[in-house]
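Re-run with default settings, no changes from the original entry. Doing this only to confirm the output is reproducible before filing.
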Amino acid sequence: MKKITLTLIALLFIGSLSTSAQHSVARDWNEQLLSAIRSDYSRPTMHARNLFHSSVIMYDAWAIFDAQAETVFLGKTFGGFNCPFNGIATPADVDAARHEIISYAMYRLLSHRFALSPGGQSTLNLFSDLLASYGYDSSFTSTDYSTGSYAALGNYLGAQMIAFGLQDNSNEQNGFANEFYTPSNEPMIMQLGFYTDTYDLADPNRWQPLAFDTFVDQSGNVFPASTPPFLSAEWGKVTPFALTSDDLDILNDGFDCYVYNDPGAPAYIQNSIGNGIDDPYKWNYSLVASWSSHLDPDDPTMIDISPASLGNIDFNTLPQTFEDYKAFYDYMDGGDPGAGRPLNPVTNLPYTPQIVKRGDYARILAEFWADGPQSETPPGHWFTILNYVSDHPLLEKRFGGQGPILSDLEWDVKCYLALGGAMHDLAVDIWGIKGYYDTVRPVSAIRYMASKGQSSDSSLSSFDPHGLPLIPGRIELIETGDALAGSNDENVGKIKIFAWRGPDYINDPDTDIAHVGWILGTRWWPYQRPTFVSPPFAGYLSGHSGFSRAAAEMMGLMTGSPYFPGGMGIFDADQNEFLVFEEGPTQNIELQWATYTDASDQCSLSRIWGGIHPPIDDIRGRMIGYKVGHEAYDLAVDYFNGTLSVETPDDNLLATKLYPIPFNNTLTISSNYNGQMAVNIYSVDGKEVFQQHINKLTNSVSVETKSLPNGFYFVKLLNENNTVISVKKVIKN
């Protein structure tokens, strides 16, 4: 059986318990979650949610004992769900308490979320094994943390997140099923050897289900005789992290669709009376067919895939108009205008060119970013990249690239919360858009247009306003004498496409290559397995483009540098080992990226070469990913710094500061508010341990706190009307 290479510089730790001292407890549990995702159904929306919810409880378990940070969920009302917390005694060993809380919380949450996973009992056993490896008892199920039990607090936190998930509009209790969505088109039969000259769609702008004798999802799970439904058509309703109502529109397309950051309608098919290539719809989907011609290792075209020649796209230059799109994407040769970078800024040396076959590069790119067949899905893929970066010896764990070097645990919980929030928000945002606009995939659009004919010249045969545009060397009419004409010229006048020939030409994926050649347009395939073909949800917008851009922005913000450590990230694709559903590549190849956004942009292009998305799905996905990534980062930092906005009687009160932190015997209060003020100090178990009323007449005032023992406290400041001015966490040394 063909070996599947899944190493990104020893990036993945599939099934590993990872209890080494070099990793934090948060990292251990994150690796367990990623392993469980690879054994579960391929559901990017649900797993973005799993990654976010798990990140929240791990972060909160750390934050309750931090003098500055605020929790997201514990003791808060999050997304309308109240998670009470009455406090717990300050631990003698904070690290041990955090370890215990995180472990029990994660064990409870993950055991619940993966109870029905196709990974079965083996997945649950891995969770139990990790818990036991720490010396913890899985049979301890109490949630009564009033006894001072950190295990009980972990159980409580896990139980509260489970309860939250059952009311966050994901419809988890009903298997995440859609409640209202129904497809506009009948399924297309994808049985090998089954073709028809007519691929009528009730609406060629709408998504079409695909029917399989056997469907195998992106994670390798088999579904006999299946027509997969639209995954998460109503996901826009799910409670997000940083998305706000300011960016939300509730639109109706037979049911209420929750759409954040509405990108506007995609390109819909036009009734072309001139050259069909001038129709943005036909240009978008025919470009996908054109790029399919690049997927052949016998193609002599050689390209440099190093950072010296690829990448370095300025976000502000992404196309906006149809003319911009045509200038941005190379219709005939593939790729974008990225010119690369002359120097590695870390080594100050030029990047070394890597000249490879375009046919190998495009095929590797399509499979690597597709994440199959052992997929942690796109959001999980970026968590593996984060973990790789975190392990890099050249990385200094200074959040945002500034301040002190953080412990492994603090670095991990902060990075996981920020990245998890971005991935979850992106799923809510993009799938809300997918559900509303409900657009067609290339396999349906290309076969539909090919069955109609050509739309370039009404004086030629097979003209139809919905036909494919004729492109010499790529999309042509079959003529008498053509190898595809048929024994009785039955195919003369039909459309042929110069493209990857598809799974019809692969008997043994360990030895066979489909190659590129002229095929009937109605037999066009994406570069995917015949048991998968396309993801079971609408195309517009691209989840891969959105996830990757949001994550890439987040990675640069979290590390303080847009560059991978050392100025380059690398993935190895071994000769004749990496490709799964056909032989290849023909040589050892490294995917190389200077920056996180370079990697993201290559991911976006991979979905075009893979036959999954046209450019219109890609670019607007990148744009929303950029916005979502920055907004999730900003909110996460507010939690880390304890600077979330609080309701105050006047905006100038938000300038309130407490210092020094940590303080000794004197705590100074600085704010623009002058007048009567109550200073109340509470221990972390919720008990009031100090109260003093002061008349603040100057910019700052100090209170003596000699009687307080060392430890963590909450300070609540109230004005003379008992309105809260500020609540902040402090520590006394």
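The first strand starts at residue 77 and ends at 78. The radius of gyration is 28 Å.
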